[in-house]
Structures are given as structure tokens and as C-alpha cells.
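**Protein record**
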Amino acid sequence: MYELRYKEFPVSCVEDFAPELIFECGQCFRWNAVPGGAYEGVAGGRAARAYIRDNAPYIFCAEEDYPFWDEYFDLGRDYALIRAQISLDPYTSLAVQYGRGIRLVKQDFWETVCSFLLSQCNNITRIKGIIERLCLLAGEPFEFEGRVLRAFPEASALAELDEDALAPLRCGYRAPYVLSAARAVADGALDRDELRALPPDEVRAKLKALPGVGNKVADCIMLYGLGKLDAFPVDVWIRRALDTHYGRHFDPSVFGEYAGIAQQYIFHYIRTGEREALDA
């Protein structure tokens, strides 16, 4: 039997790789804190740990998988340049400085569709629980350090199921949304490559044709699952930030091609940074 070799890889973008910020900012749901301050997660049928040691970031994974994680974490993108480009006003500058270390990960399109359908009217702890139960139900097993983990289920694996089969997930009214999306992806009606080639308004319209997808979920899918970094999801936190600091009619296109990254900094700051400032 082939034995995986594991290795620790140093991350070159030291100032813009903070595992806690990356995995606790609401963009992905299969990474969890483990003892020692590391985060362990699954993506693309692989697993890794990300951590800081002696003020430097590292990724621990199967040696052959490192190119996948390099791409997943988008390590070739210059976040220092992005931070300078989107720091257009005092509030955004504060958010960017506070959230230094956040970076958007490149997620699988289908996993993103499914995850954000399940995220609606939900908290992060419960979303993670539903997704883990989904992976146990239908995900393919693989090994990491002698443990058996589960990949995210393929759309085709869920397309054949019915709502009763999803009952163990305890995802309520979201079950038919997940099944409809799985069937659309499995039969090619919703195709990642086709969507990537379309203008934003057309992509949003196609996504919103899925049951259960509104503007916020569509924009999350565009940002996290299609790599459209100008997408700007608006939830209650972002709406509060916009109303308080920018005005109801603020146009996020002022942030240009990185509006979605600006959104992530603002989201993290209003949820965490402003609260810390008030408690200080």
C-alpha cells in the first residue's frame, strides 16, 4: 500500500497569512481549531494543518499535496498591494489594518454552493455541524496521518437522494434547496466554467434561479466559489457597516476588482474589531 509522506512547508507571505483570521471570517466551514493553536481542515479530498510558529506561518500536509494548498490559499497573490489599493477611507483603512492576515481561499464551486445554501439563517457552529454530518453521510473516505476523514460529497452523490435521506443532517427547510442544486450541478445545468465566463449580472441571475438562492448567497458563491473578487456579499453585519460608515447608497465598486476582499476585512472588523474597541 502506498504510504503518504507528510512535510511542513513554510509560507512565504508572512504578513498576510493568519490561520485564525482566514478560518474564522465566515468564508469556509471545514476548518477547525485544534490543540496548539493550529487549524486543521479538508478541501478537495485532502487535509492539512495551518499554524504559526515563531511568528512564521506553516502548512503541514502530504508532500505531494502542497501544490494544491499553494493554489487553495492563493499564495501567489500580493495582499500588501491589495490592502493599499482598497484603503480608500479611514474606516476601511482601520478594517484592513485590523484584519491583516486574512486571505480568501479558492474553494470548490459545488461545495461553496451547497455550504452557503446551508448557511442561511444559521450560525457558524451549526453550519459546520450540518456540513460534517453531510460529509459523513455521502463523502468519500481518505486518510490523513492514519485517520480516516471524509471529503465533501460530489453533487452526483447527492443528486440521487431524497429529502428523507438528508433527515440525519437536521438542516430543515434547506434540504430541498441542497438537492435541487446538486441535480443542477450534476446534470450540467449549472456549470462552473460557463458561469466564470459570464458577466456578473448574468451569473447572479443564473444562481438566483436555484431555489433558495437570493442576492447574498449568490454573491457568496460568486466570491468564494467562482473567484469573482469584485463580488460584495451583504449580510446584516455588512449592512450595519455600510449604513453607519458609508451611507445606504454606497457603491462597493469603488473598491474595484478587489471589492470582495474589502468586504471580508470590513466584515471581520465590524464583528470583532469594533466590539473589542468598545470593550477596551
User: Anything to note?
Assistant: The longest strand covers residues 46-53. Residues 6-75 form a domain with the TATA-Binding Protein fold (CATH 3.30.310.260). The radius of gyration is 19 Å. The beta strands are 6-10, 31-34, 38-43, 46-53, 56-62, 141-144, 147-150.
